[in-house]
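User: Continuing from earlier, I have the next pair ready.

Assistant: Great, send them over.

User: Here they are, in order.

Assistant: Folding the first of the pair now:
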Amino acid sequence: MYDRKTSSLWSQLGMQAVAGPMAAASLPILPVEHTTWGDWRQRYPDTVVLSFNTGYVRDYSRDPYQDVSLNRQEAAAVFVGKAVKLYPLSELAKTRESVEDVLYGKRLRLHYDRRNRRLTVQDDTGEAVKHFVGFFADLRAFYPTAEKFQLRERR
């Protein structure tokens, strides 16, 4: 991500400037929702989206990384205070129930709607907890010491 105003370069996953006058400045995590287009459109029918008709010749239906071997396992990076924990969506999808966990002393409730691929993360008061979804391998590269969540086996 390039900042035209200051010519700084920003790391999206690291959430900070990595070069330029803003180096080491942080970006806030904005509220985000990861879901399917169908689910979003049903809940927010007046949403306006950008068109693929940009005036440039480009096939936006083609994945530019389709020939590159990438681990595309999705995971949520959840942030509480200075702590971050990675929650693979495949782990959350193993149960239809909400998952309860504790991060940095805060009780969390994560609910993953497999059908709509929608994740909500809340604390015990019902407040949204900062998080975003990315590829697990990328998140691990940026947060190498973050704990990886694994669902406990039921006995």
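And the other member of the pair:
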Amino acid sequence: MTHDMTRRSTVELISDAISDATALVGSEAKLMRAEMSDKVDHAVAAIGMMVMAAVFFIGALFLLLQTGVAFLVQYGLSPAVASVLMAVVSAVIGFALFMAGKSALKPAKLTPTRTINQVNRDIDVARQAVSGTDSR
């Protein structure tokens, strides 16, 4: 029986597999960090939009309320009724803006989906390599 010197030993193969797995985990960790950074940037931008919406909302609201009350008083409503009506309209607009910003912060929009998908693909490839099958 001849021993082929070009064949690698089991220890070498296991060592290479562990080395490759370690490198893969490191790459996946880098990908996750990059994607999470992107998601945090998205969250910060969404919060910034909500804050800016509030700033503009307050200034515009004051002017709109004054104009709306004056308009409604001119058409026969009492100042009190006109003020309440304008307050309700402004509350509805404010609520809509808040909900739009809140929607941008849903956990589903902040989940690192690309990293999860890549890890699942890597697991599938590793399973195929271990079982000796190829899905292609």
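Worth noting for the second one:
The helical segments are 10-74, 79-103, 107-110, 113-131. The chain has one domain: 29-125.
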